[in-house]
Amino acid sequence: MEQDIVIDTNQLGEDIVKVLKTIYDPEIPVDIYELGLIYDVMVNTDYEVKILMTLTSPNCPVAESLPQEVEQKVKALDSVKAAEVEITFDPPWTKDLMSEEAKLELGML
Questions:
Q1: Contact (Cβ atoms closer than 8 angstroms) between residue 66 and residue 32
Q2: Domain boundaries in the chain?
Q3: pLDDT attached to residue 74
Q4: What residue stretches are annotated with the MIP18 family-like domain (predicted)?
Q5: What phi and psi values does residue 64 have, to the nearest 5 degrees?
């Protein structure tokens, strides 16, 4: 008798973060997760993912392509059934959202 494979949503969340850390803002040599562009990652029990993110500015040159890249890379994870990226500018992104690692990388510490 086959059992359904149970996927740990916490582990899936960690896997999603690993993927997000491979995506870089083309203007800043730091990944979008460390930059603080990811506001929330939600995974439901059906393994559907919703990512709430922002951009460094509303006029960001990758406003079209960056969210698509995030969605495609997260969808590519085996255990993800669907992925949706929502862009918000509330609250607006500031340098305060960057991780210590990102600030160090950019010489801001």
A1: yes
A2: 9-95
A3: 97
A4: 14-86
A5: -85, -50
DSSP string, 47-80: -EEEEEE--SSTT-TTTTHHHHHHHHHHHTSTT-
Using the 8-state DSSP alphabet, how is residue 30 labeled?
S
Say what the pLDDT of residue 3 is.
46
Amino acid 36: pLDDT: 97
Contact criterion met (CB below 8 Å) for 32 and 97: no
CATH architecture of the domain formed by 9-95: 2-Layer Sandwich (3.30)
Residue carrying the six token digits 């495609």: 72
10 to each of 14, 23, 67, how far by Cα in Å? 6, 21, 23
Q: Which of 54, 57, 17 is nearest to 37 (CA)?
A: 54
74 or 28, greater pLDDT: 74
Residues found in the chain: 109
